[in-house]
Structures are given as structure tokens and as C-alpha cells.
Amino acid sequence: MALRARALYDFRSENPGEISLREHEVLSLCSEQDIEGWLEGVNSRGDRGLFPASYVQVIRAPAAEPPPPARYANVPVGGFEPLPPPAAFKPAAQQPPPEPFPPPPAGYPFPPYGGSYQPSQGSDDDWDDDWDDSSTVADEPGALGSSYPDYEAAGGGASGRYRLSTRSEPSLGPRGAGHPPGHPHPPGGGGAAKSSATVSRNLNRFSTFVKSGGEAFVLGEASGFVKDGDKLCVVLGPRGPEWQENPYPFQCSIEDPTKQTKFKGMKSYIAYKLVPSHTGQQVHRRYKHFDWLYGRLAEKFPVISVPHLPEKQATGRFEEDFISKRRKGLAWWMDHMCSHPVLAQCDAFQHFLTCPSTDEKAWKQGKRKAEKDEMVGANFFLTISVPTGPGAILDLQEVESQVDGFKAFTKKMDESALQLNHTANEFARKQVTGFKKEYQKVGHSFKCLSQAFELDQQAFSAGLNQAIAFTAEAYDAIGDLFADQPRQDLDPVMDLLALYQGHLANFPDIIHVQKGALTKVKESKRHVEEGKMELQKAEGIQERCNIISFATLAEINHFHKIRVRDFKSQMQHFLQQQILFFQKVTQKLEEALHKYDSV
Fold first, then answer.
1. Nearest to 518 by CA among 196, 107, 199
2. What is the pLDDT of residues 566-579, one digit of tens each?
């Protein structure tokens, strides 16, 4: 018998692959097994797709088999309350529309934050057997274990490690009367009428706010051990919240890209020499190593703009121009990494910079340790330390105003960067092809005139003939100067624009996390005003939103600080190169002019 279900509520599809439902509509199910809270089926209009499992009720045969085990049957005791008998709920018609699926337990493995990132594929620096194997960190001596030891077992006083949690104590009373069926009761919810309301979860479980762990953190579902070395401190500076400066700043050069081979010459790749200033020891890294590091950092830091790497290229990877351009792009990327107070001190980045190129075992241990990092997702926000005392609680309206202003700024900057990049690229193309051709055409015309004058064999005209011939050579040389000039001035500007376009592409997700937190605070305040939520619970949500706001504003301030530094330096370089270029052109013309003095 085909599986069927009845819609309990209306549902409007918002994303590709979803279908809309009407209350009381009967649907055909493709499977009774939900996929992270979503079922697949066909509605009465013949549309096939996904819809929230909690919005429908499966229609079972009279002699139904026992239901399958609960989805979270293996969750440790204390994670969720047992479901009460069905009779404890109101009729479906009196219930508010539920969330699309139950909130996952803390630590649930969502897809990596920043879904647009894809690791390097075979088109550019393939992953090799010697790069990745089936071993785990637990197998490696001295590597970080899969989980921290229990705090009580460690005596509660493990040096430099602190147990942090945003969870409230789970209620032992009955579920709130108005709670939708099929949903575990949120942690901290009591049986009293005042605390029966909870802040709702986003319907879109694939949004950045949810995938980054921001929602779970704000709603008090994060719990983990934070070591001193994992703490990320935000301080109040003259321009507002700022990341605490790196006490040991450093730089790292990227030099000498060389082509190397392996497997007896069957595979070729480009290796770059890195020399960090704080160690002075050179290491060699391939593009795939940069790519791996970027993926780890983008997943770990949802409120930090990790600079994008230069684009991959499937063909022409060993051409000199491409290698040179990529090295310059990687140099800009490295500069921004080293300049960021948080990214520069990240363990994965330090491992990338300092692990000897020849020690494959040490490299794999560090790689596995980074991939087993527990301070990701909701737990990442536990590592953020914000100021206390006066000014410690940010004004939400002021924060929202600043974030909206920055959002408008990034939109305008992105449009301007695209326009400037297009203009510079078009101007460079004209210099390399059009201007060179036109100047050399003028030079050729002067040369033809000189050749015509040489038919006059009289001695007094020889000087003029030579001067005109020299003028022709000058214009030919000026054409070459035009063709070479974009490498000196326009290309560096476009390299910088490319780097900042990557930053600008990151900030919508960062802003989305902060906006999502503000929305939860507003909702909790409304529940308090209506007498449906305890003030203490709402204050906890606001405190956690305050942490996200501090981090977001700190990242915005860092962006502006580094932007002013970069564009000041680049514009100075551009104008200096322009002046030098026209001085060279002037010199060529003056040399030609002086040839006529002796005629």
C-alpha cells in the first residue's frame, strides 16, 4: 500500500526542490524516512519535492507496525525530554504552525559553513595518496583526541581549559500545552505558563545563520571546553570593538615558484617557497595546501572574512604569466592572513607556515588535528571573549544601524570595484594592443618619410634624415612602453580589487549571522512583554547576541583599517608608476628633439 500523509498546516515553498502544501491535503510519500526533518512526496497537484515532516501526519493502516526508533534515540540523557502521550496535545487545528523539523542536538554535523566553497579538484593540483589517508588523529601519537576528557574527571581544574555552556537545565515537567507534536521540548523550557514560549527556529535549515552555528549558540545550545589558546578577545578601541592585536606580529614572503615532479616525472606541480619572518625557516607549499587551509578557516570562522585564494585554472597552469600572476595573488592573500589578529594566530595557519616540508608525518598529524577541531559551529562562539563593565552591553539599535550602514557601504564598494576593474582591464587591453599599434604605426610613417628623404644624396640633408629616422625609432619604443606599462600599474590595482571582491562576497553571510541573532533577541523581548517568557531567559539570548555583535563590529573595523592601508599604498604605487612611465616617454621625445639641433 502506498504511503500517504495528510497536511496539518499550509506550507509555501520558498526554495527549489520544495513543494507547497494546503491544510487537509492528502499527499503520497516517497518514503516515510525523513531527511533532516524533511520528507519527499507528491502533492495533490502532482508536484514532487520536499516539505517539512512536522507539517504532515502519516496516514497509517489500522494494523500499523510499531513505529521506528526515535530519531535521537542515542542522544545522551538530558539532551531532550521524552515525548508525552498524544492526548497531552491540543487538536491540530488549534496548534500554531510548527517548525519544519526538530532542532538537532548540539554538535550536529551541519554541512561546512560557507557552502559556496569547494575544495580543489583534479583540474588544479590533484589530491594525492600521500596527502590524505585513512588514518585519524586518534591514531597519531601526540595528536589531539577526538573529544576532551570530562571536566569532573579532570577535577574541574585542568590548566588553561574551561567548561563553557549556553544550555539551561532541562525541564523535568510536562511539555508546554501549545507545543507542536513531534518536536523535542527546547532546553530550559518549564511547565509554567510564563516560560512556555520559546524563540522559534528558522524554517530554512540551510541558511548561513543555522549552518554557522549562530542560531544554536544564541538559543543556548552550545557546550564545550575552551582552552586559553582558543580564546578570541574583542576589546573596545577608539573606533569601537576591535580584535585584540597580535602580540607577536609577523609577515611571510612567497617566492621562487618552481616546477617539480613526482612519480618519476608522471605528475608535475608548482611549489612556492614560504619564509615566515617569525621563524626564518623556509617551507614549500603547493596550491592544494593553500586550498585546504582556506577550507578549514572558512568553516571555523563564520564571523571573520577569510580572504579568497586566486582562482583555479584547469589549463595553462605551468605558463610563466599564470605562475607569476598566481604568486602575486597568493602574496596579497598571505599579507591579509598575517595582518588579521585572529587568523594569524590560528593553529591551522601556524601549522601551515611552520611544519617542515619533508616531515609528512608531522604534516598529517597537524592536518588531522585541524580537521578534528571541536571549536567550530556553535562552539566557536564560546571562544569569543568580549569586554566587561561599562560599554559591555551594546545598544541593539545602534548595532543594527552600524551593520545596515556597512551593508550599504559594501554594496556600493562592490559595484565601484566591478566598474573600476572593468575600466582598468579595458584600458590595459588598449595599451597592450591598440596604443602600441598606433604609436608604432606613427613610427613606421616617420621611417617611410626618412627613407624617401634618403634618396636625396646631398650632404646637407643627411642630418635631417637621421633625425627623422631616430624619431621613428622613438615612437616605436614608446609603443613598447605602453604595452609593458599595465604590468607596472594597472595589474597590481586589479589584483587588489580581486582580493577585496572576495572580502565583499564574504560579508553578506557575516551580516546574516548577526541579523539572525538580532531577530532572536527581538522575538524574545516580545515574549517577555506578553508574559510568555522569563526575563532571565531573554537576557541570556541578548547576552549571546551581544557576543556576536561585538565580533561582527570588530571584523568590520578591521576591514576598514586594512582597506585604508591597502588602497593608500596601492594608489601611491599606481601614481608613482604613471609618473615614471610618462617620464620615460618624455625622455624618448626629448632625445628625438635634440637630434634636430645639429641639422
1. 199
2. 999 999 999 999 99
**Can you tell me the distance from the alpha carbon of 56 to that of 25, in angstroms, rounded to the nearest whole number?**
9
Cβ atoms of 576 and 492 within 8 Å: the answer is no
At residue 88, the pLDDT reads: 38
Which string of b and e fits 271-286 if b means at least 16 CB within 10 Å? bbebbbeeeeeebbbb
- The 3-state secondary structure of 472-539, one letter per residue: HHHHHHHHHHHHHHHHCCHHHHHHHHHHHHHHHHHHHHHHHHHHHHHHHHHHHHHHHHCCCCCHHHHH
3-state secondary structure of 102: coil
> Annotated binding residue at 12?
no
Q: Annotated binding residue at 167?
A: no
Kindly report the CATH class assigned to 396-596. Answer: mainly alpha
Of 242, 208, 110, which is closest to residue 514 (Cα–Cα)?
A: 208
**What pLDDT is attached to residue 188?**
38
Task: State yes or no: 288 annotated in a binding site.
Answer: yes
What are the tens digits of pLDDT across the range 95-112? 445 444 444 444 444 444
Residue 399 and residue 518 in contact, taking contact as beta carbons nearer than 8 Å: yes
Contacts of 541 (CB under 8 A, 6+ apart): 199, 218, 219, 220, 520, 521, 524
Average pLDDT over all residues of the chain? 79
Distance of CA 86 to the CA centre of its chain: 44
The winner for highest mean pLDDT among 52-56, 141-145, 252-256 is: 252-256
- Please say whether the beta carbons of 318 and 257 come within 8 A: no
Rounded Cα distance, 247 and 253, in Å: 20
- Domain 243-374 sits in which CATH superfamily? Phox-like domain (3.30.1520.10)
CATH superfamily of 4-59: SH3 Domains (2.30.30.40)
Given a contact cutoff of 8 angstroms between Cβ atoms, the answer to whether 273 and 330 are in contact is: no
- Residue 264's pLDDT is what? 65
Helix, strand or coil for residue 546? helix
For the chain, the domains span 4-59, 243-374, 396-596
- Cα–Cα dist 355/333, whole Å: 19
Helices 535-594 & 490-529 angle (0-180, nearest 10) = 170
